[in-house]
Specification:
The protein is mostly helical. Helix content is 78%, strand content 0%. The protein is built from ten helices and no strands.
């Protein structure tokens, strides 16, 4: 018996990947590097891959954000305007992606994923504050955050890590502070994209709901261990799993 046109084996694989993505995304960012190629391997059309990915990832980022608020790591008053500009940037990016040919997306998405994976490999993990901020908080809020939000609306993978790295390198934040703040902004971008994808009907509901459960489980565990695991190992795990799935997807697509 199949669900949403997918075998039980594939559904189980997507659930496992969503748990890993929720765990990894909460602690180091980059969970989309796992979920997007996994969804592409399932044979779901490209725009629906992006829409379903946003649907399920909203649970992970939402769970992590709520836990950051409850633990007192982030105050809503400190991040509300950044969440707003991130939201606006993501709406713009998600609208733009609707007008790109799906055949083009089938080719472009794996390339984007490959570049982000390579970026993860060669960009050192930022572990300490960079010192004095290089730009003002207002410029970061009104320029950097919406730009990353726009990228998230169009593609998404790596957004959490980009927010963390820019917070550390441009605002002089500690990696833990930057990680906590990134969750709330990433949640705003996910909600924004989800609204657009819901409006255009590009979501596989059964797959999305199953992966939402996995994201919830992974994010709960990830938020608990956020301050106890070295993100270097997580980044390596992300890259290895991502490249493995992209290789498998390429073989499925181009080798008949």
């Amino acid at each position: 018996m199949d669900l949403a046109g997918l075998s039980y084996g594939m559904m189980g694989f997507l659930f496992f990947i969503s748990v890993m993505a929720g765990l990894i995304d909460t602690m180091a960012g980059g969970g989309g590097l796992l979920t997007v190629p996994a969804l592409m391997m399932s044979g779901i059309p490209p725009l629906s891959v992006l829409g379903t990915n946003k649907f399920q990832s909203t649970m992970g980022s939402g769970t992590a954000t709520i836990m950051m608020f409850l633990k007192g790591k982030v105050r809503f008053a400190d991040v509300k305007y950044k969440m707003l500009t991130a939201f606006c940037g993501a709406v713009l990016g998600t609208i733009v992606i609707q007008f790109i040919n799906t055949k083009t997306l089938s080719f472009v998405i794996p390339i984007i994923l490959l570049f982000v994976a390579v970026y993860f490999i060669f960009t050192p993990t930022v572990e300490k504050p960079s010192g004095d901020p290089k730009i003002t908080d207002k410029k970061f809020q009104n320029l950097v955050v919406p730009a990353i939000g726009c990228y998230d609306g169009m593609f998404g993978p790596g957004t959490g890590s980009f927010l963390i790295m820019t917070g550390v390198s441009l605002r002089g934040q500690g990696v833990v502070e930057a990680s906590a703040l990134a969750k709330s902004m990433n949640f705003a971008t996910n909600v924004a994209s989800l609204i657009v994808f819901l409006a255009v009907g590009k979501i596989f509901w059964v797959v999305g709901l199953l992966m939402m459960l996995g994201q919830f489980i992974g994010a709960r565990v990830g938020a608990h261990y956020l301050f106890h695991i070295n993100p270097k190992y997580l980044r390596l795990l992300i890259v290895v799993m991502c490249l493995g799935m992209l290789t498998r997807y390429a073989l499925m697509t181009f080798v008949k």
